[in-house]
Amino acid sequence: MTLDFGRLFGRTLLLSVLALYTAFAAGPFAWLAVMSLRTTSEITADPYALPTILHWEKYPQAWFDSNYGTYFWNSAIVTVASVALLSVCGAMAAHCLARYRFPFNRLVFFLIFSAIILPPQITIIGIFQQLVQYGFYNTHLGLILVYVAMQMPLTVYILEGFFKRLPQDLFDAARIDGYSDWEIFWRITVPIGLPAIATTAILNMIYIWNEFLFAVVLLVDDNKRTLPLGIQRFMGDYLEDTGMLATGLMIAVVPIIVAYVFFSEKMIQGMTAGAVK
Amino acid sequence: MALAKRWRASVGEGQAWGAIMAFLLPALLFFLLFTAYPIAKTIYNSFHIIRPNRPDEFVGFGNYAQVLFADAYFTQSLVNTLIWATVAPIVDVTLGLLLAACLYARLPCARFFRVAWFSPVLISYVVIGVLWLWIYNFDWGVVNTLLRALGLGAWAHVWLGDPNTALWALILVDAWKWVGFHMVVCLAALSSLPREVIEAADLDNCGWFAKLVHIEIPMLKTTLVSLLILAFIGKMKIFDLVWIMTKGGPLWSTETLATYTFKRAFEWSTLDLGYPSAIAVLSFVLVIVFVLALSWLLRQRGRLEF
Q1: Among the partner residues A89, A128, A209, nearest to B30 by beta-carbon distance
Q2: Would you call B116 and A25 a contact, using CB atoms and an 8 Å cutoff?
Q3: What pTM, to 2 d.p., does this model score?
Q4: SS3 of residue A32 by DSSP
C-alpha cells in the first residue's frame, strides 16, 4: 500500500517536472501568439494578460506595411530550388558512393563528409569574393548555389547510409535485365529511397528556410531578402512597437507551426536524421 | 543496342568509370567550387592584405602574428566560443538524456511532450532571438517578473546588459532551442535498446536513477559521444543568435569567432579581407584539432573499457 503511494507520488512529481519543462519549451511561443493579438499599449499595461479584444486586423497590417510578401516569395524560391538541386545531386552522389566499388570511393566520401565540421567563416569570405568576381553577388542564384554546397555533405552522408542498406540482389537483377546505370538509379534507387530523400529534403528545407549568415553577407537589396533578413528588418522598424513586432514574428512562425502540426513525426525524423543511426 | 546492354551487364562494377563520374560530378563540382575553392582562397587571403581595387600585398605570417599576440578581441572571442562549445553540449545532452529517460518511463501524453519539446528546434534564430530579448527585458521580461513574483526582486537583473551574465544568458537560449533535439535522439536510442536488459533491471527492483546510470548510459555511450561531438561542432559555428541578441556586446562579452570574423570582414570598414581570413583559418584549424582530439580521446576510452 505504501509502495503504491510512493509510486503514485513519484509519478506525480515526474509529471509536474515534465509539465514545467513543457511550459519552458512551449511557453514562449504561447506568449508570442497572445501578444500578436494585442496592441502595444495593451501589452505595456500588462504584458501577461490575455487579449480582451482579438486584434486580428494587426496581421494584414503587418503584412502590408512591410515587405513580407516579397520576403516569403524570395525564401520560397531559394528554398525550393536549393532543396530540389540538393535532392537530385545528393542522391546521385550517394547512389554512386554506395553502389560502385572504385578506388578513392571512401576518400571522396570522407572528403565530402568532413565538410560538415567546417565553421562558416572559413568559406564565407572566399565565397563572397568569388561571387562578387563572377557577378553572382546579390543574386538568388548565387545564394542557392552556396546553400546547395553547404547542405551537400549532410545530405550525401544520410542518403549514402540509407542506400547502402538496400539489398544488392535488387541491383544485380536489374543489371541482368539490361537496365542502364542511369535506369538503375532512376527506377530502383530513387523510388525505394524516396522516404530517405524526403527526410533529407525536410531537413534541408528547414535549415535553408531559417538560414541567416550567408543571406546577410550575400544579399543587399531589400526586394531580394529572404525571410530571416526580412524579420530582422521588421525588427529594426518596429523595435519600440512590441505588439506589431510580435505580429510580424508570428507571421514568420505560423507556416512552420502549421506544417509541424500535420507532419510532426516526419519533421522530427528529418531534423534528427544525421544523428540517429 | 541489345549488344550494348549485354556488354554493360557483363562489365563488372569496377569499370563503369563514365557512370561513376557522371553521378559524382554535380556534387563534386559544388564541393570544389563552393567549399574547397573558397577555403583555398581564404588561406591565400590570410597571408595578404586584401583591399578592393588594389593589388594584394603579401605579409607572410603578419596577420597571424597580430591575431594571436596583439588582438585582445580575438582572445576574448576565442575564450567565449570555447566556453560556449564545451558547456553547452554537456548541458544539452544531459538535459536531453534526462528528459528522454523520463518519457521512456511510459508516462501518459509522452507523444505530446515529445512534439512540444521539439518545437524550438524548427524556429529560426532570428525569431528566437527577438522573443528572448523580451524574456530577458529588465522591466517586463518573464525572468525578472517571475523573480519579483517569488519575492526575489533583488535578483532582477539586466541579464543581457551585464558582461558577467550575457554569455550565460545566451547559452541558456541556445540550450532551450536544442535540448529537444537531443531528447529525441536519446529517446530513439533508448527505444532500440534490448528490452530484456531493461526488464531484468526492473525485476531486480532497480530504481529509475540507478537504471539510468548503470544500464542506460553505458549502453548509449556511442550515441552520447556522437551527440557531444556534433553539438560541439554546432556551437563552434554559432552566429545568428548572438548577432540578433547582443551583436557581441556588452564589452565583447558575447563575441564569438564567427561574429568577430563577420565584423572584421563585412561590418567594420577596415576594407581588408586578409586579417579576418587569418581569424577564419585559425578557427578552422582549431575546430579540426578539437574534433580529431575529441573523437580520438573518446574512442580510446571506449577501447579500454571493452
Answers
A1: A89
A2: yes
A3: 0.90
A4: helix
